[in-house]
Design a protein that fits this description.
By secondary structure, the protein is an alpha/beta fold. Helices cover 51% and strands 15% of the residues. Strands 1, 2, 3, 4, 5, 6, 7 and 8 form an eight-stranded mixed sheet that branches. Helix 1 runs antiparallel to helix 2 (33-52), helix 4 (71-78) crosses helix 13 and helix 10 (226-234) packs across helix 11 (240-246).
Length: 319
């Protein structure tokens, strides 16, 4: 059964009518093409207007949409010759983070991403994209490998945050996140990150410390979730919609604050309505920014990356 967001109900009713028309045409051999095209144009117009004026809370809902393309969708569509590299060589393999060697348009690279899963079974397997220390140590191993062989790194962020359970704390989740960020600031490889859904807390920053950070149009990126923020400020997570208004977590807010470099336009009605088109848009943007990155020498690139993240704090304070 399709998941429907509250503000999309009027559109879904029209889409259901289109589906019913198509089914009746199959049975009765009736030509309803013109009627379907008319209704589809109406759907597209409504979706265009709806998605132009989404509130931060509505964008949060879109970013968390269960049918939104996940990392493995982008991995399968954008990259070829993927060879997964597992484990952190210390404790275990964390399936919340998937990574390995691949090619993008015949360019050898390292790709790392947070995977939420597509159904109940896979969501449990990937722990809803919430990685434990071993996941971030696996990421460090892949970053070091990329640096050794001068391979570009493409990371994909989609997580509510790092795993907060007792085991993760016992095995040093804070240290793993800090070390991942520190290594990202040191390596000479080109690093390009894309926030495809949720970019939550240090769990997101650990994989988004890059030369360029891209965000899908209706994704979010914040130091804390709206619910978490509401719980701290008012001891009431039902005020999440209110806190999202001033968190500056949308792609549009973050571009104005220069915390990201580009907004990747999504298909009409969000990435969940056309996964193939969303993947193509991300691929084109990655290739564009890769061309920009290779113009810079490794030393200047690393220096710029450090200065960039130091400047973000100043930008937020000034704003």
């Amino acid at each position: 059964m399709r998941f429907v967001l509250d503000f999309e109900k009027q559109v879904v009713d029209l889409e259901n009518k289109i589906w019913a028309l198509r089914e009746s045409a199959k049975i009765g051999d009736i030509d309803v093409t013109s009627e379907i095209l008319k209704m589809q144009r109406k759907v597209d117009n409504i979706l265009t207007q709806l998605y132009k004026s989404l509130t931060p809370w509505q964008k949060t809902q879109v970013a968390r949409h269960p049918e939104r393309p996940k990392f493995t969708d982008y991995l399968n569509h954008i990259f070829t010759d993927f060879v997964e590299l597992s484990g952190d060589r210390l404790f275990a393999d964390d399936e919340a983070i998937i990574g390995g060697l691949a090619r993008i348009n015949d360019i050898p690279c390292v790709v790392i991403g947070q995977e939420k899963g597509h159904d109940t079974e896979s969501r449990l397997k990937h722990n809803f994209g919430m990685a434990r220390p071993e996941g971030y140590r696996k990421a460090q191993r892949l970053l070091a490998l990329a640096n050794r062989f001068a391979l570009p790194v493409f990371t994909f962020i989609d997580t509510p945050g790092a795993c907060p359970d007792a085991g993760a704390e016992e095995r040093g989740i804070a240290t793993a996140l800090a070390e991942c960020i520190a290594l990202s600031l040191q390596i000479d490889s080109i690093c390009i990150s894309t926030i495809i859904g949720e970019g939550g807390s240090g769990g997101a920053i650990a994989l988004a410390t890059s030369d360029y950070v891209l965000m899908l149009e209706h994704s979010i990126y914040s130091v804390i979730s709206p619910e978490g923020c509401a719980s701290i400020l008012w001891k009431d997570d039902t005020k999440a919609a209110l806190t999202s208004e001033f968190q500056k977590l949308t792609a549009q807010d973050l571009l104005s604050l220069r915390a990201i470099d580009s907004i990747v336009k999504e298909p009409v009605g969000g990435a969940h309505r056309n996964k193939t088109k969303a993947c193509e848009a991300v691929k084109n943007e990655l290739l564009t920014f890769h061309k920009m990155a290779i113009r810079n020498k490794a030393a200047s690139r690393t220096k710029s990356r450090r200065q960039r993240f130091k400047a973000i704090g100043d930008e937020f304070i000034l704003k």
